């Protein structure tokens, strides 16, 4: 089927992005070692902003003729784009926000490759080296603002949520925007777009002109969660683990809306970190919320956490149902406590260096069939490490659902098999089954075929 496409050339806005010849060659290198493939995939996802595709493989197949290349000029560069989705243009001219996002993609992919991955200064086998790399990527993107009081709320939740849940996420965003709180999300649709949309109205009413709508993504997921139009700062982290670390080190509190396997992964990530003994005293407001119609969803999540991680994990969050004002007030109070705590220790407001993140939460987890089969999902280990392995299990389900590589692996080798203690597998199977029943695995109207099999 033919889809409307546009060819164009664009220059960077504002300061010119200047690349060396070696950097340009690396980007244009279509071999496995080059950056071109990842750049093309992320650029296509950005150009597809506003579409209803949540399938990286389908997006690449739909726009097979899409091509993007760098034209180097003496005074800077241009992007030469062929076969771009027409949704990115108005009257033949590229939408400004999408234009900006394309150069954010270019910035992050070049910087990460040249300054982080290939740089011996960063020891990516060590915890401190990874945390330092995350800091440098965020600083290079200009998102660490040293002169601001803490006010950045990370909002997590599904890209496939129903209308009531989406409207509710907007109401919460609005209540937070009225209180001068900025929003950071995974940058996609659904529960990532709603809070940003609400906050823009809250900020406008308070005449706050510098509202921040920070989107943090990674190459594997960006096609499924194309940046929504409100995102005014976009950062692409190299992998899911660094993306998650970026959320918890830049954000001052987290609000979790209903979602599917990806949201469960995020919940397990933050709980695993907060359960580490070294983090016992660190204030970190964490609120789960949704409309009245989502009450049962949070009952299931809460039960799953109780059954797998225990009552101690339940002490680290609050569940607030159907009360956007209360969510905003609680978050504001929680962030005030964060500010007092950081101030008393002379810690930075813009990056949470004090949070201890175990290597098990930082090491990239390739969701291969073998790795999924060998996950240690047993009770006879420290609870924060069980959380780390549960997070990996849900990460694999996300990969099999929407990531191009994961979907191709499922096509080739069949279901992922997840093994473990019966006391963990039972609740996990029940939770995943409820996500399927509530259409939380794919966008509404798309049939879902499970990519996993829980073996009890």
UniProtKB/TrEMBL annotation:
Q: Where in the numbering of this chain does the Pyrimidine/purine nucleotide 5'-monophosphate nucleosidase N-terminal domain appear? A: 8-115
- What is the name listed in the Swiss-Prot or TrEMBL entry for this protein? AMP nucleosidase
SUPFAM superfamilies in UniProt: MCP/YpsA-like (SSF102405)
Q: What class of enzyme is it?
A: hydrolase
Catalysis performed (reactions) = AMP + H2O = D-ribose 5-phosphate + adenine
Report the Pfam families cross-referenced here.
Answer: DUF4478, Lysine_decarbox, PpnN_C
List the InterPro entries hit by this protein, alphabetically.
LOG_fam, LOG_family_nucleotidases, PpnN, PpnN-like_sf, PpnN_C, PpnN_N
Top-rank taxon, per record: Bacteria
Please report the stretch or stretches of sequence annotated as the Pyrimidine/purine nucleotide 5'-monophosphate nucleosidase C-terminal domain. Answer: 335-455
- EC number assigned by the record: 3.2.2.4
PANTHER family hit by this protein: CYTOKININ RIBOSIDE 5'-MONOPHOSPHATE PHOSPHORIBOHYDROLASE (PTHR43393), PYRIMIDINE_PURINE NUCLEOTIDE 5'-MONOPHOSPHATE NUCLEOSIDASE (PTHR43393:SF1)
User: What high-level taxonomic lineage is stated for the organism?
Assistant: Bacteria, Pseudomonadati, Pseudomonadota, Betaproteobacteria, Burkholderiales
């Amino acid at each position: 089927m033919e889809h409307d496409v546009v060819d164009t050339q664009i220059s960077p806005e504002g300061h010119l992005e200047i690349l060396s010849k070696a950097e340009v060659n690396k980007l244009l290198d279509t071999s496995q070692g080059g950056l071109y493939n990842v750049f093309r995939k992320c650029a296509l996802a950005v150009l597809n902003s506003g579409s209803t595709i949540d399938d990286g493989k389908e997006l690449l197949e739909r726009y097979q003729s899409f091509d993007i290349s760098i034209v180097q000029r003496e005074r800077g560069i241009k992007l030469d784009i062929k076969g771009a989705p027409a949704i990115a243009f108005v009257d033949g001219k590229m939408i400004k926000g999408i234009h900006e996002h394309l150069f954010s993609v270019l910035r992050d992919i070049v910087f990460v490759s040249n300054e982080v991955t290939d740089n011996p200064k960063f020891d990516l086998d060590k915890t401190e080296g990874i945390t330092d790399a995350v800091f440098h990527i965020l600083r290079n993107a200009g998102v660490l603002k040293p002169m601001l009081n803490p006010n950045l709320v990370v909002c997590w939740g599904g890209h496939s949520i129903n209308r009531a849940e989406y409207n509710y996420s907007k109401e919460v965003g609005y209540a937070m925007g009225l209180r001068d709180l900025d929003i950071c999300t995974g940058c996609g649709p659904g529960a990532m777009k709603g809070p940003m949309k609400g906050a823009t109205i809250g900020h406008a009413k308070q005449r706050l002109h510098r509202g921040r709508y920070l989107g943090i993504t990674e190459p594997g997921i960006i096609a499924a969660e194309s940046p929504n139009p409100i995102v005014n700062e976009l950062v692409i982290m190299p992998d899911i683990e660094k993306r998650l670390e970026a959320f918890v080190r830049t954000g001052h509190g987290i609000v979790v809306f209903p979602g599917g396997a990806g949201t469960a992964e995020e919940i397990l990530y933050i709980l695993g970190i907060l359960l580490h003994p070294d983090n016992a005293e660190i204030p970190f407001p964490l609120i789960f919320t949704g409309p009245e119609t989502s009450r049962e969803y949070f009952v299931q999540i809460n039960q799953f956490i109780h059954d797998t991680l225990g009552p101690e994990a339940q002490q680290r969050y609050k569940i607030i149902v159907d009360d956007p004002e209360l969510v905003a007030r609680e978050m504001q109070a929680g962030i005030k406590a964060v500010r007092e705590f950081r101030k008393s220790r002379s810690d930075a407001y813009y990056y949470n260096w004090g949070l201890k993140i175990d290597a098990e939460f930082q090491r990239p987890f390739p969701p291969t069939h073998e790795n999924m089969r060998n996950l240690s999902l047993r009770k006879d280990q420290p609870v924060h490490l069980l959380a780390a392995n549960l997070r990996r299990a849900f990460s694999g389900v996300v990969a099999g659902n929407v990531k191009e590589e994961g979907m191709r692996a499922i096509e080739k080798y069949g279901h992922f098999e997840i093994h473990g203690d019966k006391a963990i597998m039972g609740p996990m199977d029940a939770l995943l089954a409820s996500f399927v029943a509530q259409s939380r695995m794919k966008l509404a109207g798309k049939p879902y075929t499970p990519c996993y099999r829980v073996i009890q």
